[in-house]
Amino acid sequence: MASISHLPNELLYKMFKELYNESQEPAPGLQILHGQPGETVISELPQPKTTWIEKDLYSPALFPFCVALVCRRWRDMLAQTPEMWNRIVLDVDVDPTPLLGAFSWSKDLQLEVLVVSRGEKNGTQPEQQLENQRVWSITKLLIPHIHRCSAVTYDITYSSSLPTLGLIFKQNPIDLVKLKVECRIEDGDHNGTLARALEARIYANVPLVTNYSSLRLISISGRLFMELGKARPHFLRHLQSDDYHYNLAISQFEFQEEIEDDFEAYTLSRFFFYMSGFSHFKEVSLRNLTLSYPPRSFQTLPPTSSIRLKQLNLKNLEGNFLSEFFTLACIHCDSMRIDRCIIPELKRLIKSPTIWLGHMADSESIINLLCSWSGTDLTLVKCPAFNDTVLDVLAVKGGEGGLFKANKLSELFAVSCSNFTSTAVRRVRSRLAMVARCLRRTKSGLMR
Description:
By secondary structure, this protein is of the alpha/beta class. The protein is built from 14 helices and 16 strands. Strands 3-4-5-6-7-8-9-10-11-12-13-14 form a twelve-stranded parallel beta sheet. A two-stranded antiparallel ribbon has the order 1-2. Helix 13 packs parallel to helix 14 (about 420-430). It starts with 8 loop residues before the first helix and ends with a strand.
């Protein structure tokens, strides 16, 4: 029996084409990517008739990469079809060298690029250096093609492996819709990395482009945000998109303590300075941010910053960080989502008419929030800590002035929360009847 290596190229290509067709679905209508207000302009880049079916992009069996890695002959055959390479997924846990030609194989097509680290790391220096080198080998080939990318994602282990935002925003990526540059481990100062050396040497005097009419999401590590703020403090404030419908997400960073006359430290106060003027963002999300020091007491001091946002999302944040966060700044937002956070006793009032709480496992956190909030609408989703103790806090007057906690609350929704009794519900219903319609019991919790 002949081995597969003896199959003629024509038959192999038919097999590869069939795998490609099974990975595709009809593309949506023509995408409006950029133009002046009131003007409809289609991207000049070739638009595909089909698009990739959503699958696990982290799977090692993802086509065409699993096929291209079998042997050079198969890889050379796949390289002849640009449509197979308009989505490039490169895993830095293995040597990416055989697939680095994908940027040229895609010809002039619009690109989606994903650079990932799939495996768990031990945090060793050789492991860190290897990831740094592999990510850099990808980044230096990606940079000349940034202008035709609609999505660029780095989801890797070490922050020192990430490219600088200057390298990206200086390449005029006018069709960029999504930019995610994230890591799982913050490993300190990165001034000596290859990406920073290249930006300093070649792109130091190149201005950052701020007009991105298709941009919808910027999700970056905390260090990249602080570096960008330090180097270009007004860049994000001047970033333009159609109707300003884009979101900013910041994650994975440990803030340094305030030290007198130290103007280089990446502190929470400096973070708020960079955040000022962000009201044009549709959403701002903060995740996995911590402090390198215990929170301080500022009960008698006014906030150092005033931040206005449309929506603020907080996820996986500990009490120390939130204590300092709500103490240093007066936060005003139209709505707030708090997911998997530990909320301490807060010194200042949370100014948001609508709050959504998710996956809260500590009833004390919910109570601390209620004691520092004067909004009207509260939604809880999958919160085992939403129990009779919390409901009793809402139902009973007390404290200074004999007011209810969350005294302006008029609508309460609870979904998939079951650790409370009907008796406690009735007590809260009596209270809410004074300011809103009564609550009725549902299978999943409370509903207006």
